[in-house]
Amino acid sequence: MRLKANDQLAFEILFYRYKNKVKGFVSQLAPSQIDPDEIVQKVFIKIWLQKDKIDPKKNFSSFLFVITRNEIVDQIRSSVYKKIYFMGDDLLVDLEIEDATGQDAQKDMEQQIESLLQKMPERRRQIFELSRFEGLSYKKIAENLHITENTVDTQIRNALNFLRNEIRKIRFFILLVFSK
Amino acid sequence: MFRNIIKRHNMTDPGLLLLIRFVSDNNLTISELIFLRDWITLPENRETINKWMHSIWLNAPEKESELTFNQLISAINEQYYTKKSHIFGSHEAVQLFQKLAAILIIPVILFFVYYTWIRKPVPKNIDYTEVIVPMGQKSEIVLPDSTHIWLNSASHLRYPVKFGSATRDVFLDGEAYFEVKKKAHIPFLVHTSDLVVKVLGTKFNVKSYPDDEEVETALLEGEVHLQVSTDLGKDHVKMLVMKPGEMINYSRASSSVLKAGFKADEIISWRNNRLIFRDDTFDKLVKKVERWYNVKIIYDQALFKDKKLTVELLEGESLERLFQIIEKTIHVNYKIDKQNIYINPKERND
Questions:
Q1: From B120's CA, which of A107, B34, B233, B275 has a CA 20 to 30 Å away?
Q2: A174 in contact with B at a CB cutoff of 8 Å?
Q3: CA distances from residue A21 to A115, B54, B73, B127, B319 in whole angstroms, order as listed
């Protein structure tokens, strides 16, 4: 393949030749809440960004595999972190909720948090997810995003305050409905 | 399927078993999840994960992906490149274009042959909504894509009930101010009798009244492409790129364009219900006034040929007030009779 020569056409050919292969692999491993095509897209974006590393003498398929594999491992890892956050005590501590709730309630909470996250400013949500869902330290996040640790701290505080308030509202509403 | 993989590799690593369970049913307990989290992060387990995944890579059947190359390119551009340096930069674009052109030329020729000689045109059935703003009134509408449009008096806008997936087309006679909702891959096209304005998401004003000599396009924000028909006929179009602060006047008589600047307040004053004339010819003023107040002005064009006027009215000022000003500045008599206004030069002796 001639992708090495900075050639978009070669990239397009590669894309169409391999996208179904990647999709087939990804579909078997992708965490259920993630659209496999989204991962396929991420994989090819990475290939584009790392096109200089492609060795034309070597098999492209194994390069593709490594990129895809790394991507899927990242996805699985963050999905595990997320699951632990939702199932464990961390969420309850973050939200300052004391009573342990049942399986269904926890599923609800998961969905509520996910949809509340969508309402946050992009940057704040990103920082919150890196901290709570990816398990990165404040220091790491600050380094990755080129911001200060203080900013990370403030953003997470704001995110948590927002989630707490919204969840309280929802719970209060449920109380009202069910006490009638 | 997973059972097969386990057997074939004789894998007994508890971490791997958990990983396999995680990706297949996702029903792990909290303590299993924590075990998996720690296991997956340990560098010495990388090899086990890699081997397992490689066997899946080799055995997984292909699955149709809906993703297109265009979507991929837009995603790359959006995430990693600024507007100025898209991955299809000028030098690369030319190379790519040449290659694509070489590949595409045959199907394109066949396509054109088919379209021009073989295929009978079938009218596409699209439902349109029409907004007609009478003289003396203005209107404000929001399209299905949340594009905001203000329509000036005596204007007519036609747009599809539902936008297609490739373009958003609207058809305009008259004057309108657009605040187009940005949609990266779906250009917004304003079709007027003489030119097409193509944008992705911007603020701009288009003035194209059938009885005006010129079509004016003024850009306030973003970037627009103007597609102008030339006197060589319908198939010869000229593309112009506009920058904010520019106005392009297209002359219907000569099919030529003139680039100029403008004052934003002047262009969009009509939206704030203010009538402004800046160095306008009398003919131009008359047309604006007729549309604005829904009146007919009767005057001798020859007598007012060289008169130019600058008048700025406040919000919602009356017709009476306007003519009091005009009367004083260019020495005319006026008479308002219901919808008709008669204008004559003042007698010399008074």
A1: B233
A2: no
A3: 32, 13, 19, 41, 72
Is A20–B65 a contact, with Cβ atoms under 8 angstroms apart? yes
Q: Give pLDDT tens digits for A54-69.
A: 777 778 888 899 999 9
Distance of residue A172 Cα from the nearest chain B Cα, in angstroms: 28
Is it the case that residue B66 has pLDDT exceeding 80?
yes
How buried is residue B33: exposed, middle or buried, by Cβ count under 10 Å (0-12/13-18/19+)? buried
Q: Do B60 and A28 touch (CB under 8 A)?
A: yes
**Cα distance from B110 to chain A (closest Cα, Å)?**
22
Q: Cα Rg for chain A, rounded, in angstroms? A: 21
Name chain A contacts of B88, Cβ cutoff 8 Å. 8
Residue type, A141: I
DSSP 3-state helix, strand, coil percentages of chain A (rounded to 5)? 80, 0, 20
Tokens of B60: 């997984």
B94 class by beta-carbon count within 10 Å (0-12 exposed, 13-18 middle, 19+ buried): exposed
Q: What CA–CA distance (Å, rounded) separates B56 from A106?
A: 33
**CA B125 from centre of chain:** 23
Q: State the smallest CA–CA distance between residue A98 and chain B in angstroms.
A: 18
Helix B14-24 and helix B2-9, axial crossing angle in degrees, nearest 10: 160
Q: Give the C-alpha separation, B286 to B297, whole Å.
A: 7
Instruction: Among A80, A86, A89, A107, pick the best mutation site for testing chain B contact (most B Cβ within 10 A).
Output: A80
Q: Taking a C-beta distance cutoff of 8 angstroms, is the pair A158, A121 a contact?
A: no
Interface with A, mutate which of B21, B52, B53 (most A CBs under 10 A)? B53
CATH numbers and ranges of domains, chain A: 1-87 (1.10.1740.10), 120-180 (1.10.10.10)
- The reply to whether A48 touches chain B by the CB within 8 Å rule is yes
Q: What six digits make up the tokens of B295?
A: 């009146």
From the CB of residue A82, how many other CB atoms can be counted at a distance below 10 Å? 21
3-state secondary structure of B258: strand
Region of poorest pLDDT, from B105-109, B201-205, B339-343: B105-109
Nearest CA in chain B to A81: B37
Give the residue-averaged pLDDT of B325-344.
Answer: 83
Q: Quick one: tokens of B191?
A: 């079709």
Strand duo B168-179 + B188-191: pairing: parallel
Chain A: give the shortest CA distance to residue B6, in Å: 15
Phi, psi for B145 (deg, rounded to 5): -90, 15
Comparison of pLDDT for B107 and A25, the residue scoring more: A25
Q: What is the mean pLDDT of residues B154-170?
A: 86
Nearest to B22 among A8, A19, A76 (CB): A76
Subunit contact B92:A8, Cβ cutoff 8 A: yes
- Is the complex ipTM more than 0.85? no
